[in-house]
Amino acid sequence: MASNISVFASRTVAFSTRLLSGKSNNIACRAFSVSTTNESSRTPIGFIGLGNMGNHMAKNLHKQGYPLVVNDVYPEASAELQDLGATVVDTPAEVADKVDRIITMLPSSPNVIEVYSGTGGIFETVKTGCLLIDSSTIDPTVAQEVAGMADKKGALYMDAPVSGGVNAARDGVLTFMVGAKTDEFEAAKEILQYLGKNIVNTGPVGTGQAAKICNNMMLAISMIGVSETMNLGMRLGLDPKMLASILNTSSGRCWASDTYNPVPGVLEGVPSSNDYKGGFGTALMTKDLGLAQNSATMTKTPTPLGSLAHQIYRIMCNKGFAMKDFSSVFQYFKEDSSSK
Q1: Which of 123, 253, 256, 337 is deepest in the core (most CB within 10 A)?
Q2: Which amino acids are annotated catalytic?
Q3: pLDDT of residue 193
Q4: Rounded mean pLDDT of 216-241?
Q5: What pLDDT digit, counting tens, does each position of 32-91 carry?
Q6: Which of 24, 305, 330 is nearest to 158 (CA)?
């Protein structure tokens, strides 16, 4: 265990040093062209990982006329896209064999490593010059490692995690944080413009993940704050919709309140009004907060609220909330206060 921690520490410090120096992996420029012709832009795209986010993203590519080759570890996740005309294959390697542009949207670092370098993975059949866009949220050092492996295969990997939630994925208005060189970023933007409204080049490979884990730490903290506030107001006799309307037009306004309110019935079309089903799972938020805390520890950055948020979400996972949307922290507080 001690040796593993030491390795992780050296990787994180090395990553931080690269960020400060502005240097990235020495990946040679690939033969990508940002063509404006319809024929070029509608060549097949591979998509691996068809969960709550990936399913919507893939469907938006389909709406734009892209032929799709898709794969998911759960075959039933591919059924809807298959009905829309997508080609469904059994392994990531089969996806890589059929296309020269692939998007992956996976739950965690181990999943990314397995899909790219495991048995039946992308690197078994990846083509020279293939563009690999990974929209998973993973450790920045893992993104850099996968980029290095891709480079040895003659392919180009970039991290492009997203923010905005399931509704933004459905509506094609996600924010993408893309770690790539400027010219390589333009090749990715040709595709990502159909999936998001804010596509930002954050710097070298790995910086997209750095931006994402910072964002998600702040998101968790703000969701906890909104949940505490709404629970207190309701226990003081305030109507939740009325309270939310005040918050959303006052200095307390934030995304967790005005767009993704955690109180059932305050907003339509969000997980809290659907028994916290769908959305961004508590277990995934816990994972992201863990990534943030690892990075904070290795860079000696004080994050007391981020640390507390991580502990709250870890407790929630042990209390039966792991598969519920992360906004169920309101329900956790409500049940906890009711039992006292």
Answers
A1: 256
A2: 212
A3: 97
A4: 98
A5: 444 333 444 589 999 999 999 999 999 999 999 999 999 999 999 999 999 999 999 999
A6: 24
Place of tokens 């939310």: 244
Q: What is the 3-state secondary structure (H, E, C) of the chain?
A: CHHHHHHHHHHHHHHHHHHHHCCCCCCCCCCCCCCCCHHHHCCCEEEECCCHHHHHHHHHHHHCCCCEEEECCCHHHHHHHHHCCCEECCCHHHHHHHCCEEEECCCCHHHHHHHHHCCCCHHHCCCCCCEEEECCCCCHHHHHHHHHHHHHCCCEEEECCEECHHHHHHHCCEEEEEECCHHHHHHHHHHHCCCEEEEEEEECCCHHHHHHHHHHHHHHHHHHHHHHHHHHHHHCCCCHHHHHHHHCCCCCCCHHHHCCCCCCCCCCCCHHHHCCCCCCEHHHHHHHHHHHHHHHHHCCCCCHHHHHHHHHHHHHHHCCCCCCEHHHHHHHHHHHHHCC
Amino acid at 72: D
Q: Which two tokens stand for residue 302?
A: 């004080």
Angle CA(149)–CA(183)–CA(27) in degrees, nearest 5?
25
Give the type of residue at 4: N
User: Looking at residues 173-201, what average pLDDT do you find?
Assistant: 96
Angstrom distance (rounded) from CA 86 to CA 72:
13
Q: Return the closest-CA partner of residue 52 out of 152, 130, 169.
A: 169
Residue-level pLDDT at 67: 97
**Terminal-to-terminal C-alpha distance of the chain:** 40
Contacts for 233 with CB less than 8 Å, ≥ 6 apart:
240, 243
- The sign of the torsion formed by the CA atoms of 311, 20, 137, 228 equals positive
- The two beta strands, 101-104 and 131-134, are parallel
pLDDT in tens, 99-111: 999 999 999 999 9
Longest Cα–Cα distance in the chain: 65
Summary mean pLDDT of the chain: 90
**pLDDT higher than threshold 90 for residue 28:** no
Which residues face 196 on adjacent strands? 174
